[in-house]
């Protein structure tokens, strides 16, 4: 039974956190794990969308979320936060990006700051699970291109064409009916006039 | 004669310590206060941020005084219902017995019912070297040197046989755990049993005692040189070149930046806010009643119910 540490306050992450960290095996042990994650977090902040192995992506995602939430909580005038950003971002111009671009972008969001997708893997052979890790609000086109309200989707193009055709036929029918209806109404008028005579004939 | 000698020497030492303490208290600072003071004007422009508003909840300061009200950070051992019931039980126990604010490094006097003699009590005075556990299992360890023999007693904070906890000297030390007192010279963990409680003026922050202890020569119980202790003065004297090399090899400087490791050891602000909102009112009430009745409070021992 442990007592929670109270010296530091952290805000809750909006992503799932496993009870224990994943080891990322390598010859350098825990230090190597952190080095790998530093590279990944730097790449994520730099390119905003990266494809990599699932385990490493999930670990790096948590660290990136923590880094951004620390930056949002404490701002750029907090020495420990600046040290942390300096440690995690290997390219120093990204520290400016973190505090000047990402903090305003995510300051008032209620969602997580990153998204993790399962990436396709080759059908045959032993393969490691792949994933795509991206920052929300990145400038690239959406990965999940299954929006049913997309106008250029082939189904929607066909449906639009079908609707248009149906509308055209309806209009054509109506146009035909306009002339007929006048004739019909005239006939009906004449019929109503003649109607009382018919039973007499039968 | 020997007893008298020991008594007088300990008193002399106690008096010397008292003088030293007076000086230290003026110089001491509280780290969390110092951190708050360095707020820049630039920060104020982003006042509306929700995260910061969460972190500025005044209830959060309770976490230093009542750390055992926070649940275990390990998600495998979490159970929201059990935690809630435990909190209500802890409050009930606190309404029966005055459990004061204390920290690692404070000097306490604990009176507890003697399990082997009905109707009798044991009183032990010592420095708190560790606080651990959460909920009803919260515990603390007192250390003292009695007749040149180091004694440590572990007490459960919410033990029903506990009769009183009195803080003789409220202060913090430079480290979170003072296990190195086991290998330090005995004078650093010797406290007289007839020590008078020192009363701090109200509203003063808890003083940090910057005393640095001197360790006895090796062998030690632990490898103190690898633990980055602030409260030890002479650790380098006892090290060989081999130990310094191994300390370098074993150092983990990256752990300071391991954000998820820190996260897994703490309870997030949002969860803490819920917990403190739940217990805040009763804890404040208890604090008020303690202020008014602390002088009057007496503990009556239950009468023996033999035939």
UniProtKB/TrEMBL annotation, chain A:
Pfam families xref list: Ribosomal_L17
Protein's UniProt name: Large ribosomal subunit protein bL17m
Region entry Disordered, spans: 177-202
The entry's keywords: Ribonucleoprotein, Ribosomal protein
Bias-annotated ranges (Basic and acidic residues): 179-202
PANTHER family xref list: LARGE RIBOSOMAL SUBUNIT PROTEIN BL17M, RIBOSOMAL PROTEIN L17
Domain of life: Eukaryota
Gene3D superfamilies recorded: Ribosomal protein L17
Organism: Spodoptera exigua (Beet armyworm)
SUPFAM superfamilies assigned: Prokaryotic ribosomal protein L17
Signal peptide: none
TrEMBL record, chain B:
One Pfam entry name: Ribosomal_L19
This protein's UniProt keywords: Mitochondrion, Ribonucleoprotein, Ribosomal protein, Transit peptide
Any Gene Ontology CC annotation: mitochondrial large ribosomal subunit
GO molecular function, a single term: structural constituent of ribosome
Record keyword Transit peptide present: yes
InterPro entries: Ribosomal_bL19, Ribosomal_bL19_sf, Translation_prot_SH3-like_sf
GO terms under biological process: translation
Compartment list: Mitochondrion
Stated family: Belongs to the bacterial ribosomal protein bL19 family.
Protein name, per record: Large ribosomal subunit protein bL19m
Organism lineage: Eukaryota, Metazoa, Ecdysozoa, Arthropoda, Hexapoda
């Amino acid at each position: 039974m442990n007592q929670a540490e109270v010296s530091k306050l952290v805000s809750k992450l909006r992503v799932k956190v496993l009870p224990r960290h994943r080891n990322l095996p390598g010859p350098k042990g825990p230090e190597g794990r952190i080095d790998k994650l530093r590279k990944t977090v730097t790449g994520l902040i730099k390119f905003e969308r990266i494809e990599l192995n699932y385990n490493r992506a999930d670990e790096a995602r948590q660290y990136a979320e923590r880094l951004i939430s620390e930056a949002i909580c404490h701002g750029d005038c907090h020495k420990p936060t600046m040290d942390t950003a300096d440690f995690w971002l290997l390219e120093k111009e990204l520290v400016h990006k973190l505090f000047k671009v990402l903090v305003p972008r995510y300051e008032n969001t209620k969602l997580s700051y990153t998204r993790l997708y399962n990436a396709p893997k080759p059908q045959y052979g032993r393969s490691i699970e792949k994933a795509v890790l991206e920052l929300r609000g990145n400038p690239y086109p959406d990965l999940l291109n299954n929006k049913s309200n997309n106008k250029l989707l082939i189904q929607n193009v066909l449906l639009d064409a079908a609707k248009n055709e149906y509308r055209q036929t309806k209009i054509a029918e109506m146009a035909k009916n306009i002339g007929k209806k006048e004739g019909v109404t005239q006939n009906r008028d004449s019929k109503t006039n003649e109607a009382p005579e018919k039973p007499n004939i039968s | 004669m020997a007893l008298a000698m020991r008594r007088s020497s300990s008193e002399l030492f106690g008096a010397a310590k008292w003088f030293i303490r007076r000086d230290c208290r003026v110089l001491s600072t509280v780290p969390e206060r110092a951190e708050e003071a360095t707020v820049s004007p630039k920060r104020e422009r982003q006042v509306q941020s929700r995260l910061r508003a969460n972190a500025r909840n005044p209830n959060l300061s309770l976490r230093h005084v009542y750390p055992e009200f926070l649940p275990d950070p390990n998600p495998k051992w979490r159970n929201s219902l059990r935690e809630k019931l435990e909190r209500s039980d802890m409050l009930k126990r606190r309404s029966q017995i005055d459990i004061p604010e204390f920290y690692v490094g404070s000097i306490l006097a604990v009176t507890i019912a003697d399990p082997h003699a009905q109707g009798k009590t044991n009183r032990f005075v010592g420095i708190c070297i560790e606080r651990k556990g959460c909920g009803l299992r919260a515990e603390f360890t007192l250390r003292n040197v009695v007749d040149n023999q180091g004694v440590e007693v572990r007490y459960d904070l919410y033990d029903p046989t506990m009769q009183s906890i009195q803080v003789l000297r409220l202060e913090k030390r430079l480290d979170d755990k003072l296990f190195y007192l086991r290998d330090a010279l005995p004078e650093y963990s010797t406290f007289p049993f007839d020590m008078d409680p020192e009363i701090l003026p109200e509203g003063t922050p808890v003083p940090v005692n910057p005393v640095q202890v001197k360790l006895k020569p090796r062998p030690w119980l632990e490898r103190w040189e690898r633990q980055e202790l602030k409260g030890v003065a002479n650790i380098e004297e006892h090290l060989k070149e081999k130990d310094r090399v191994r300390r370098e090899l074993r150092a983990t400087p990256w752990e300071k930046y391991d954000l998820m490791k820190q996260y897994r050891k703490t309870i997030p602000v949002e969860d803490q806010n819920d917990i403190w909102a739940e217990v805040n009112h009763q804890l404040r009430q208890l604090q008020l009643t303690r202020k008014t009745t602390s002088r009057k409070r007496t503990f009556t021992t239950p009468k023996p119910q033999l035939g």
